[in-house]
């Protein structure tokens, strides 16, 4: 941005407000995200916190790369969406391919990472199936007519952005593509924020070492107390119900009221549960 001048200006502005600031150019594929996606992250820590607790933000080392000993291989399109059945693909943005869309390659192979997922269904990358695009000249590509070509579906781009498969999206198809494309990939967000989370966890544990264990104990005590209260209420409300006698009619057991009405035993139990508001 502006040859780096804009970022430098932003950093200076934050420093003048009492923050220690660092910025990092990060590619999502280096942190387990199956796509080429370069973004700049600006991290600011208040100077009083940085000085008092000797905390300095350091970007975690890349976890994925060209398959070196210290890094895992890049996550590919095959890894991310190759398992999907045709019934699991979901809706796909259907539209003709504009000259702008065909001005560059939009299709990666199964064994590669995806192109950047954009905030538009119209500009979603192409699915890796079928033949690759052919370059005719500068800013001019074509799709071979010998195979079918389609854009990645909303489900597929969400998986490439490393959202959980069961994540529920709201809105129209176009709105979902936009939400997915505007998001920071989940695994990248986790990697970048992990040093901050570790610092906060360490800080709170040092302030109150028993806080974590105490919260677990407190939850157990609350659950136990709730069960005791529930048992007392059930016992109380059972007294309000008429006394039923159990009788066997064929293979089914019924509770018989004093007026000889037959009620399934399960309904008696459900009646008690309805009266106990827990």
TrEMBL record:
The keyword Transferase applies. GO terms for molecular function: DNA (cytosine-5-)-methyltransferase activity; DNA binding. This is DNA (cytosine-5-)-methyltransferase. Belongs to the class I-like SAM-binding methyltransferase superfamily. C5-methyltransferase family. InterPro entries: C5-Methyltransferase, C5_MeTfrase, SAM-dependent_MTases_sf. It is an enzyme of class 2 (transferase). It holds the Pfam family DNA_methylase. Coiled coil: none annotated. Keywords: Methyltransferase, Restriction system, S-adenosyl-L-methionine, Transferase. It comes from Priestia megaterium. It comes from the Bacteria. Its EC number is 2.1.1.37. One of its GO terms (biological process) is negative regulation of gene expression via chromosomal CpG island methylation. The lineage of its organism: Bacteria, Bacillati, Bacillota, Bacilli, Bacillales. The keyword Ribosomal protein does not apply.
């Amino acid at each position: 941005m502006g040859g780096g001048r804009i970022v430098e200006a932003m950093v200076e502005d934050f420093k003048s407000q009492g923050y220690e600031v660092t910025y990092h150019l990060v590619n999502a594929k280096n942190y387990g995200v199956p796509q080429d996606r370069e973004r700049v992250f600006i991290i600011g820590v208040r100077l009083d916190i940085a000085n008092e607790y000797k905390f300095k933000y350091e970007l975690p080392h890349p976890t994925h790369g060209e398959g070196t000993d210290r890094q895992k291989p890049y996550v590919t399109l095959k890894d991310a969406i190759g398992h999907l059945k045709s019934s699991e693909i979901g809706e796909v943005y259907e539209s003709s391919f504009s000259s702008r869309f065909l001005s560059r390659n939009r299709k990666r192979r199964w064994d590669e990472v995806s192109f950047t997922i954009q905030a538009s269904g119209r500009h979603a990358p192409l699915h890796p199936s079928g033949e690759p695009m052919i370059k005719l000249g500068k800013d001019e590509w074509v799709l071979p007519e010998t195979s079918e070509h389609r854009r990645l579906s909303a489900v597929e781009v969400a998986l490439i952005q490393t959202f959980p498969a069961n994540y529920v999206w709201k809105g129209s198809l176009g709105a979902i593509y936009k939400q997915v494309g505007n998001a920071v990939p989940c695994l990248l967000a986790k990697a970048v924020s992990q040093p901050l989370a570790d610092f906060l966890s360490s800080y709170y544990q040092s302030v109150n070492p028993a806080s974590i264990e105490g919260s677990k104990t407190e939850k157990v005590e609350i659950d136990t107390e709730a069960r005791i209260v529930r048992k007392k209420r059930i016992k109380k409300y059972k007294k309000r119900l008429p006394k039923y006698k159990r009788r066997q009619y064929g293979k089914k057991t019924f509770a018989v009221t004093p007026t000889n009405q037959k009620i399934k035993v399960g309904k008696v139990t459900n009646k008690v549960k309805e009266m106990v508001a827990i």
